[in-house]
């Protein structure tokens, strides 16, 4: 996704360690608008002043800790629905947070690799971006956009996370692909004479072009041509891409 498209999503990061805060900001800035808070109290004031689209929050902070911040925000009508991600040690996640934290999007175990934090957070950011596109749609139930703004991988992961049923039409260099999703799983795909898994693997390679998601046409196809779920299709597409790039390097 380009920075231009992603900046529509505002993410508040609450982390008291300035080094980690700086690292997270650098990793996430290409994908969303990042607002920083130095501790839980600072985060609470910023959220009440201008509610963000999502919150990435450390658990252990001086004064107001992450869990207290979560509970205070869940207690307010204006902030109770903001998606929340927690950073905490594995022990704290399993013993103190997960059992009580209904409504948390995800937990990120510390210490983490920045690429893992970005990957987990970006899934939530992409889903919110898709929801915003849906609200701005000129036709009810139809979202249109460009692959330069939201890649096929981002789109498919967002549809899976949101458990969406729809028809996804993708156009690239005169070719058109049609993918049908049921509850987030890609059931049917076709590009010209290619269908099923192979059609998905081809369309995932498209980095430029237009897409249209029609939530009104979810039942237009009753066929099942794919043999894997959405995540399985994307993982296999990545494996095939890696294999192709390795072969290209090895070819004299």
Brief characterization of the structure:
The protein is 41% helix and 24% strand.
Number of helical segments with 4 or more residues: 9
Instruction: Kindly identify the CATH topology of the largest domain.
Output: Rossmann fold
Q: Termini separation (Å)?
A: 34 Å
Beta content comes to 15-25%
The first-level CATH class of the largest domain is given as Alpha Beta
Strand order in space, largest sheet: 6-11-7-8-9-10
Count of extended strands: 11
Q: Label the structural class.
A: alpha/beta
- Give the quaternary arrangement of the chains: single chain
Question: How would you describe the shape?
Answer: globular
Low-pLDDT parts are 1-6
What's the structural domain tally? 2
Secondary structure: helix percent: 40-55%
* Cα-based radius of gyration, to the nearest Å: 20 Å
N-to-C series of helices and strands: HEHEHEHEHEHEHEEEEHEH
The largest β sheet comes out as:
6 strands, antiparallel
Mean pLDDT: 91
Do you know the CATH architecture of the largest domain? 3-Layer(aba) Sandwich
CATH homology group of the largest domain:
Response regulator
